[in-house]
Design brief:
The structure is a single chain. This protein has 356 residues and is an alpha/beta fold. It has 3 domains: 202 residues, Rossmann fold (3-Layer(aba) Sandwich); 53 residues, Adenine nucleotide alpha hydrolases-like domains (SH3 type barrels), CATH 2.30.30; 78 residues, Elongation Factor Tu (Ef-tu), domain 3. Helices cover 25% and strands 28% of the residues. The protein is built from 7 helices and 17 strands. The strands form 3 sheets. The chain has a 6-stranded antiparallel β-barrel with strand order 12-15-14-13-16-17. The chain has a 5-stranded parallel beta sheet with strand order 3-2-1-4-7, sandwiched between helices. Helix 1 packs across helix 6 and helix 3 runs antiparallel to helix 4. 38% of the residues are buried.
Length: 356
């Protein structure tokens, strides 16, 4: 097949590129440039420059053609704009899910020559086709690295064209392959930043766009001011780390965006705090959307942990999800992604959490 391979400068996409070339496919590597230089000038060296240097070295080693595609304006409009608007509203968005559905498998798909039968990435997930002809995502065997959560909003057309060559492998197996291939990225550390940005931490991203503004930290039970913060947008419901207060542990209980107040509590885990029910909207289903209550598994964030839950569809197109155990980090704006028997069923956005 003629395949476009999205490469980021990391070990995963490098191994994916090598595997596809060895299988005899006609492969071209594509690097997506998404950030404007002046936006990141305060960081010093642009994070993408080092990534692109690795990409070029890998492509030269494998004798694969490379094309650099600029989607900077599109990324700013489709991902950055949405993310900042959600944060300003006090919600907790996930830019990586949007980056996949709107940019990597969205704008890039639309700009790509139709002669490319597939678009491959280094994601840890597997595309499968059900007996009814619809496409779905199977989880990777590595529960820690599994990235099905980030792919939960892809459309059927996107899944039909998507290819994940390392989705059946464990992370340590990918590293071993990189060493056996002697790839330039074989010892490069995994990126921990936003999408494929690398160095830039989420807090820095938020500070760059929203700045800092002093506000009060108030104990939710007593109404007493316990300290100050530099902007409610730096905090997430359920957060414990980084509050900087003595006499804890303290947790973020809720936020007041209009008045820039962060409400905190030392009694976050008491039995009267139910935190097991929330409402989801804008669901994207790989299977047929359920019309009756259904038992499934759910993730509210990327990671190996799955909650058992009951999903009950509502007449207005939303669904109510009740966890079979509590979760202390349910926050509006988060993506809830649903699973059953190792398959990702789809997901939606948490619109409201029931806390008591």
């Amino acid at each position: 097949m003629k395949i476009a391979v999205l490469v980021s400068g990391g070990v995963d996409s490098s191994v994916a590129l090598k595997l596809l070339k060895d299988q005899g496919h006609d492969v071209t590597a594509f690097y997506l440039k998404i950030w404007l230089e002046d936006e990141l000038s305060y960081l010093g060296d642009c994070p993408w420059e080092q990534d692109l240097a690795y990409v070029r070295e890998v492509c030269e080693t494998l004798n694969v053609p490379l094309r650099v595609v600029s989607l900077q304006k599109e990324y700013h409009e489709q991902v950055v704009g949405y993310t900042i608007a959600e944060i300003k509203a006090g919600r907790t968005p996930n830019p990586d899910i949007l980056c996949n559905s709107r940019i990597k498998f969205g704008m890039f798909f639309n700009a790509l020559d139709e002669s490319y039968e597939k678009v491959a990435t280094g994601h840890y997930a597997q595309v499968i086709q059900n007996t009814d002809g619809r496409y779905a995502i199977a989880q990777a065997p590595d529960p820690v690295k599994d990235q099905s959560y980030f792919l939960s909003h892809l459309s059927q057309d996107q899944l039909k064209r998507a290819l994940f060559p390392i989705g059946h492998l464990q992370k340590d197996e990918v590293r071993k392959l990189a060493h056996s291939f002697d790839l330039p990225t074989k010892d490069r550390k995994d990126s921990q930043g936003i999408c494929f940005l690398g160095k830039l931490k989420f807090r820095d991203f938020v500070k760059h766009y929203l700045g800092e503004k002093s506000g009060d930290m108030i104990e939710v039970e007593s109404g007493k001011k316990m300290g100050t913060h530099n902007g409610f947008w730096f905090y997430t419901v359920g957060q414990r780390q980084g509050l900087g207060l003595a006499g804890g542990p303290w947790y973020v209980a809720q936020k007041d965006p209009e008045n820039n107040i962060v409400y905190i509590s030392r009694n976050y885990y008491t039995d009267d705090k139910v935190r097991d029910t929330f409402k989801v909207a804008n669901c994207n289903w790989f299977t047929k959307a359920p019309h009756d209550p259904v038992q499934l598994k759910v993730k509210m964030r990327h990671g190996p942990h799955l909650h058992s839950a009951t999903l009950t569809p509502q007449k207005d197109g939303t669904s109510v999800v009740r966890l079979h155990e509590r979760d202390q980090g349910i926050a509006p704006g988060q993506f809830a992604v649903f699973y059953s028997d190792g398959f990702c069923l789809g997901g939606g956005v948490i619109s409201r959490a029931v806390t008591k």
